[in-house]
Write a structure and sequence with these properties.
179 residues; 8 helices; 52% helix
Length: 179
């Protein structure tokens, strides 16, 4: 399997309504904002003073939320994403994991697993799936057969990344408790 090189570009996208994601990566109930690294950096008290390590941990937090969501049932995925462009948003948020490659957060085995996961997510044909707002189109999109192996791979990736996730949560908790 060919390795996917890290994506060094940044292309934020508009966020869906976030009533049910309040508190995750600076989502504010009922607002719209940017997803990915931009909103992760928004959690910091002073983004100009953020270390590369802190930025990586915040981006990882968004990524692991996405992988956790992808491991769930189509119904739960739609609910977690506010029934708005669920397929596109999850694929896009997952592919932002490219920004974590080379960040120092992963062992070699974990990085290889993330790259394999990204390679599997990339060809999911979200542009051929229903989109927009509402339960019906999003549930139909997430029930597309292309998502079934991604759900399984997500569960496997969560197990491989367990130590990185534990370290990430400890880091973020320490940052939250810092003066």
């Amino acid at each position: 399997m060919a390795a996917v090189p890290p994506n060094n570009s940044f292309n934020p996208n508009p966020l869906r309504s976030t009533n049910n994601m309040a508190g995750r990566a600076c989502h504010v109930a009922g607002s719209t904002t940017q997803v990915g690294l931009t909103q992760a950096l928004g959690r910091m008290s002073d983004p100009q003073q953020a270390s590369a390590l802190e930025a990586s941990h915040l981006a990882y937090d968004v990524f692991i939320f996405t992988v956790e969501t992808l491991s769930r049932s189509p119904e739960d995925q739609c609910e977690a994403m506010g029934n708005y462009n669920t397929a596109w948003e999850l694929r896009d948020d997952a592919l932002a994991g490219h920004y974590l490659i080379g960040s120092g957060l992963f062992t070699e085995q974990q990085q290889s697993a993330v790259l394999a996961f990204l390679a599997a997510v990339h060809p999911v044909p979200v542009n051929d799936m229903p989109a927009g707002s509402g339960r019906a189109p999003n549930l139909t999109a997430m029930q597309h057969p292309a998502w079934e192996p991604i759900r399984s791979l997500s569960r496997d990736l969560l197990a491989v990344l367990a130590s990185a996730t534990e370290a990430n949560r400890a880091f973020l908790a320490a940052q939250a408790n810092a003066p």
